[in-house]
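Residues determine shape. Next comes a sample protein:
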Amino acid sequence: MRLADNRRIPRQLGEIEVEILGRRATRLIVFAHEGEEALVGVDTLEGLMLEVDPTEQALRPVPFALAL
């Protein structure tokens, strides 16, 4: 994987079925090493049609998908 600071680190990829706020999908995941913080990435949030509400510090459903 290439990080935002351009460093490359070895990581394994996989697939997992995730469910958040009643929305379910199969998404690609990156396996972290022990001691690294787990997080939900933007790919998973977009795939589940969820967005972050920074004011409420919560996730909320997106009513429709945008196509470009």
In short: The longest helix spans residues 42-47. The longest strand covers residues 13-20. The helical segments are 42-47.
